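Exam revision sheet. Question 4 asks you to relate a sequence to its structure. Input first:
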Amino acid sequence: MIVRRRIATVGFVATAITFGPGRMAYGMFLPQLREAFGFGTGTAGTIAGLAFAAFFLALFFTGWATARFGPRLPVLIGGVFAIAGFALTASAPGIFLMSLGVAFASASAGFAWAPFNSMVEHAVEDRFQKRTLSIVSTGTTFGIMGAGLFAAGLVFAEQTWRIAWWSFAACAFLVVFVPLVLLPQKAISGQRMRLDWRFLKSQLKAKNAVPLYGFALSFGATNGIYLSYWIEHIASAGGLTGLAPELIGPVLLCVFGLAGCLGLLTGDIEDKIGLRTLLVTLFSASGVSLLLLALLPGNWTATVVSAALQGICLMALSSVYSFWSERLFPKIPSASFTAVVMIYAIGNMIAPPLAGLASNMLGLGPTLAVFGALSFLSLPLIRGVKNV
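Answer key, structure tokens:
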């Protein structure tokens, strides 16, 4: 009991900080960053793409480092990257260091997430594994809400965005301190192994995994675009009636995180309606979310519903990819989940720069609508999905 509670606590803290402000703060503060550093929509997309590329590379390194050195080292590296990323952004005199800081902060999530799957797999009893991983995932939701509430408080206190990033840097020290103090030896020992790349490749190229990979890539693209441009699109369209421009990001981030709590019910819902119906529902919701944002950026109801739907989709699909990959690849559950998240990260990495370029020709609203259609265009993949 002590082992699983400590793993859950450390995982909660790590994901709260690295997936909360680490992954979300750039999009939340994009209007202020553009004003401070004077860059356009295309450049904003490039910075987002670089940040997601850093996340992808961190995932790749983490898979190797966990096998070679155990799961605690990548988490500690994630904490260091979070501290450096937040501090660089907070102190940046120009766009280069700001972009580097955003990339470092995003990379921290890649380092600090996947190792907990390995810890749980090796140190927690089978009947408690799902619950423990759910607690770790819950950190993302509370981190997002916490970042939004904290940013809102700074606005009311008339503090700048730089204070927010310095505060995030201070919080990130917990990602280094807590694992060193709380992780039990059982959670980090006996997990070093030599990766059999040939075996992994032979397993992961299974044809029945194509829908899983396709859905991961699709949502990676649409979610990456959403998180990169949602606040910027609303602000540039005139904002929301009665809400200060600086509060748009914090308020909607709280909605996003609060709605994401419903994603914790994903496993129970899937048991009742099946995987195929669940996927159709989630990808339809993702498409509607982007279309509402694209077409009605100044409407309170539309933007709140859009943020809520996207929050639910992010948390629910994170859970889906975890248990779906485990069912398809029972011999390599951690490696297969990491592979799926890397495919998701490829979508994150490629789509925002493309959207930035497209917005220069079409405008941001039509571009968001086009990519929203991608969620619906992904639905034919459902024909290859079995209710495993």
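Marking note for examiners. The radius of gyration is 20 Å.
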